[in-house]
TrEMBL record, chain A:
It is found in: Periplasm. The keyword Mitochondrion does not apply. GO terms for cellular component: periplasmic space. Belongs to the bacterial solute-binding protein 1 family. Residues 1-21 form the signal peptide. This is Probable sugar-binding periplasmic protein.
Automatic annotation (TrEMBL), chain B:
This is sn-glycerol-3-phosphate transport system permease protein UgpA. It comes from Flavimaricola marinus. It is a multi-pass membrane protein. GO terms for biological process: transmembrane transport. One of its GO terms (cellular component) is plasma membrane. PANTHER family: ABC TRANSPORTER PERMEASE PROTEIN. Pfam families: BPD_transp_1 (PF00528). Signal peptide: none annotated.
Amino acid sequence: MKLTTKLLAATAIVAASGAHATDLEVMHWWTSGGEANAVSKFADAWNATGNVWVDGAIAGGGDTARPIMVSRIIGGDPPAAFQFNHGRQAEELVEAGLILDITDVSEAEGWADIITPSSLLDSCTYDGRVFCVPVNIHSWQWMWLSNAAYENAGLDVPTTWTEFAASADALREAGVVPLAMGGQSWQQNGAFGVMALALAGQEAWLAVNQDKNAEVVMGPEYTRVFEAFGAARSLSDGLNVQDWNQATAAVIDDTAGAQIMGDWAQGEFALAGEVAGTDYSCLPGLGEVALLDTGGDAFFFPVTGDPEIEAAQKELAALLLSPAVQVSFNSAKGSLPVRPDVDLTTVNECTQKGLDLLASGAMVPAGTQLLAPDTVTQLNDLMTEFWSTPSMTPAEVQQQYADIIADAE
Amino acid sequence: MAIADTGSTDRQLAAGARRPNRLFKNLNSKIAAIPMIFVAMVVFLGGTCWTIFYSFTKSGLLPNTNFVGLDQYERLWSSRKWMVSIENLGIYGFFSLIGTLVIGFTLAALLDRKIRGEGAFRTIFLYPFALSFIVTGLVWQWILNPELGLQNVVREWGWTSFTFDPLNNPDIVMFGLLIAGLWQGTGLIMCIMLAGLRGIDEDIWKAARVDGIGTVKTYVRIIIPMMRPVFVTSLVLIGSGIVKLYDLVVAQTSGGPGISSEVPAKYVMTAMFGGQNLGQGFAASTMMLLMVGIILIPWAYLEFGGKKRG
């Protein structure tokens, strides 16, 4: 009898706590040190509301994580929320009615007025309805340089790509790998995108990525980019790493001179205790054309059919954009907040440069917002082949790049 | 003999009288086989037909019926990455097949010489098979890493010019994968071969010894031909492992450097989920099925077709 009573009591407790707290499984691919630190800010804020954040981190980057997320959503076992880059990656999931419409949250919170740049909310909007929450602004357009590596070699820290390319030989003689580059295809194609915007300029870049104009790819502006990218290939010899944060680590410990990587790299510098300006330098737009592309991460909420989870999903959506969470998350992540009405607690020199560029409107949409994932995959394959095949000439890759752009939708 | 003859005549007579429907003969076992038949028809055959059907459409993240004819196949065969994948599968398949069979059989034959501690060796050789390909891939990625692994160890021993860095050299990266594949796969084949060797009658050995035939020659000329069914089993196991090669590549090189260690299964996965282009992935998997069919059907016909077994 006693046992039965105990069991009943235990069941009652479990049932009671279940009614208040909702477990939400959130899938994302933020697994490097800086990223994990940032995502824990979301988790803490969500747990503080009495709900439970079930962390579904997937290691290996977006290319590994996205298939797992999509197969779970299509397979009928969706997580409560998942991270994608905004833009065209979730287009078809939304069209198929698998994603929760959160227009009511957006209207209640007035997202249309607070989210800046407005293109971020546009990327979450399909046919006038809102389907995702942009949580940060990330830009690819950065180069990170190790000050100590240049000082040890007796060189000034370069301020433009041209200076960097000219100093590469001297750096190599000092035993430093000039350019750190991870082995994954998205990093090589991403770096090419950065060089294209910085060296060919905004007009040519938009003609290729937005208007899919293959003639511009064959034009003189892009020819210069392909040649510069081809010349950069040998600069990363001697450093064999896969993940981007391993490449960043080489810049942090001064064995590599520089890395072209998005501003998420700054989370790694911060975690290693490095100070912007003294330990490392940053060049937005490679110091050539100071423009930022405004991509970033967004959270989507799959349709589950469970009203309790749905309510919790909407609560989480509102929480992710609340001012306090935006500040703590973006400070840890090294990204910029999507609302200009908050002040970041620690704004270093590099973040300030980024904020100034955003305030002055020097920005373009991100590649992921303009190109379909199919096209991005083809370009990834092409650029990674070019990067690791020294015998492939810039002219060859230029022609193939033009073919892919001509077929792009 | 006479009794048996009478029995069979009786049965024939009875059959002639009642003409039972063949469908209901052995009913119990047929009912028991229904789930298996269902799985084979719906899951395997149905899934295959569904895949082939949608490979002619422009399906993106989700399947749709927007037909584009052979466009997906045209794009597939004009893709450099697909050609590299096929070539890599050929290299890996050829060396993996030969290597696994030769090493597996040699190890089995050595163990079969009634050595001391056979059980311990068998366990050691079979142990890698208990690991997933992901673990194998990671372990070998570390062993072959020039800064951490083999190259570094040999250099520390004093041979400072020693270079062994297959995973970062596009020309030999497939052999880096092959080492890991062989390490994982030979143990199982060795066990199967050993079981086959144990199934050989002692008298065969005695007869060979009486005739003065050497040990190696006995293995090659007498034992191996007798082990034909064991080799067929091994071939099927190795072959299916080669075609579905995917996780090892993902764990060890993720297709790199560049695209030099891509394989067809990875092409399918990347197209379907990374590129959100199901149609392209389906076209690639249909081609994989076709390749397996081209190799398998003539072979299966020769092996199982011509003569009745048993």
